[in-house]
Amino acid sequence: MFEQVKEAVARAGFQPTQFDSETILVRTLKRKPYDFLILDIPANPAAGDSIFSWLGIRSGDHIPSLVLAPRRSGELVAQVLDGGADDFLERPFEAVELVARINALMRRCAPKNSKRSIEYAGFSLNKESAKFSYQGQPISLTPREFSMAWLFFSSPGVYISRETLGTVIWSADSEIAGRTIEQHVYKLRKKLQIDGRQVVVIRTAYSQGYRLDPVDEQLLASAENMAENETALEDFLDGPAPVTMRRM
Predict the structure, then answer these.
(1) How many C-beta atoms surround the C-beta of residue 7 within 10 A?
(2) How many other C-beta atoms are found inside a 10 Å radius of the C-beta of residue 128?
(3) What is the pLDDT of residues 84-133, one digit of tens each?
(4) Could you give all domains of the chain from N- to C-terminal order, each with its CATH number?
(5) What CA–CA distance (Å, rounded) separates 151 from 169?
(6) DSSP-assigned letters across all residues of the chain
(7) What is the dihedral of CA 130, 99, 104, 118, to 10 degrees?
(8) Omega cis (within 30) before 45
(9) Using one digit for the tens of pLDDT, what is the confidence trace for 50-90?
(10) Which of 53, 220, 226, 247 has its CA 20 to 30 A from that of 108?
């Protein structure tokens, strides 16, 4: 089960840690912060199970928690939620649903003073007004382009997987939203050009996704190569959708 969870969350940029006992988990949480907690429980947990006792008494702990179980019933879900967990998911599960639930819980449980604006490399993003600008000059973005820009500018230098982009922005996995993701990344790259030059660059790694970096001497060559391929990419995006085939 841990391997299934690990594969799913790793694609979304998380680094999971496994704990085999509640004692080690509790001790570790006291000295090391975590973003999210997933608990795997048996089909018929005891009403006084210690993990529920711990969930119910953790005061001042705002780590979102999701419980996995091999069956679903009204009684079990009620026991889990009444015990202090934030969400419930029956296993086996679809990876895209697990990641979507994690992202939704983290949004709901985010502190009220969570970041509402970003300043980076001369660019400004305001989440309340959905305004985007460079050194005070507004740049027009569609709502989805702004959501994508917010993800990139929130974590510069960190790869964001296609699965994460698809789930967060389109509520779809990378296979469904793949072509749409490529189109939006391409359009966002063009809008990030200032007077024909690139201040930041969105890099692509096939197995990792996309990453925002400032354009410096080391990255300039990569950005120029990207620009040389713009015409070919535009022809591809404006042309008919490709046909995908597989062996039956």
Answers:
(1) 11
(2) 7
(3) 888 899 988 888 888 888 888 887 776 655 568 899 999 999 988 899 99
(4) 2-108 (3.40.50.2300), 117-238 (1.10.10.10)
(5) 10
(6) -HHHHHHHHHHTT------SSHHHHHHHHHHS--S-EEEE--SS--TT-HHHHHHHH-TT----EEEEES---HHHHHHHHHTT-SEEEESS--HHHHHHHHHHHHHHTS-TT---EEEETTEEEETTTTEEEETTEE----HHHHHHHHHHHHSTTS-B-HHHHIIIIISS-HHHHHHHHHHHHHHHHHHTEETTEESEEEEEETTTEEEEEE--HHHHHHHHHHHHTHHHHHHHHHSPPPP-----
(7) -30
(8) no
(9) 666 666 655 456 788 898 999 888 888 888 888 788 889 99
(10) 53
Place of tokens 């702990």: 61
Tokens of 175: 């296979």
Residue 76, token pair as written in the block:
């079990």
Both tokens of residue 56?
């119910």
